[in-house]
Each structure stands twice: as C-alpha cells, then as structure tokens.
Amino acid sequence: MKYVACFTMHMRQYIQALNSWLKLNLIPIESSLKEKISSPPRVQKPPIQPLLISWHDQLEKLPDEVAKSAISSFAAVIKTIIDHQEEEMKLKEKYEETRKEHMRKNQAFQEWYQKYSMQHRTPDEADSEKAVSSNTKDPLSDRQFVVESLKRRMEEEIEDHQKLCIQVREKSLGSLKMRLPEFFRALSDYAHACFDSYERLRLLTLSQHHVNRGS
Hints:
By secondary structure, this protein is mainly α. The protein is 87% helix and 0% strand. Helix 3 packs across helix 6 and helix 4 packs antiparallel against helix 6. The protein starts with a helix and ends with a helix.
C-alpha cells in the first residue's frame, strides 16, 4: 500500500512544489524607490510556467484509479501467498523440533538399552525378572513406546507439511495466473496514458522553443 501512496501522491506534490517555487520567484524586485512608485510591477511569464501548468493538468487527467485498484488487488494476493507460506514454515519448524526430539530420545533409548541388555544377558534371566515383577511396569516397553510415539508424530507432521506445501503451491499458482494478466494490463494501459501525456508535453516544449527562437 505504500507503493500506491507513492504512485498517486509524489509526482503531483513535485509539480505543486515547482509551481509554488515559481510563484515566489516571479515577484518583481524593483531596482529603486522611484521605479517602484512610477511604474507598476511587470508581469513575468517565464517559459517554464505554461509547461508546469500543462504538466499539472495532464497528471490530473491520468486514469490512475484502475491502476491503483489493480495494484491493491495484486498486493492482497501477494499478502495471502505470504501468509500461507508462513503457515507452511511453521509446520516445517514444528516437525523439525519433533524430529530433533525423536533423535534425542532415540539416542538416549539406545544408550539405555545397551546397559539394560548387559544386565539381562539371557532370555531366561529376563523372563525370571519379568515373572517376579509382573505387577510393575516394564521399563523397556515404556521407553520404546515414547520413542515410537515421537516417530509416529514426526511422520504425521511431515505428511501434514507436505500436503500443505502442495496446497499452497496450487493456490499460489492459480492466484498468480488469474491476477497477473489483469495487473500487467492495468499497468500497461496506465503506462501508455503516461507516454501520451509526456508526448503532449514534449510537443508543447518544442512549440515554445520555436516561438522563442522566432521572437
């Protein structure tokens, strides 16, 4: 939207500033008190003045509303695409965090399992311990469950991210295919109108140049 403000304001402000500057510099400066009393101030009309007036009029006539509307619409499309991509990045960060957590938990489990295996070298020893502590929780199963749950969650989050990536690509491509031709058409029409305006200004300066040379 900042571009739209620049698009509509700055050129007109520039011409208005030139006009104001010119008016200030057209105030006649009398050489003496006698000249001030005896003669009325001379009206000055420098060659640039008609150009500035015409330039201002040409800017006022430019059909910029369609171009402004096209720019605003396209900016909204780009914002929507950016919002979707930010959502996509959040899902990626989410599964990356889960993946790191799974790697930490899995590594810790492998280290613990090596120690656990050293303490329970034979199946008979493991079965006898399991029979004695049948009412207590199995630490191996509990730790395996935590690691496997994290793995399943990571896989689900990766799948969700991949699905969203496909949706975002399809929506973005569809929006751009629909809006870009309209956007470029509006800017092209406005550019042609600007070209015609500046061509008229160029012809005006040429005619003034010929008049000044003739006089």
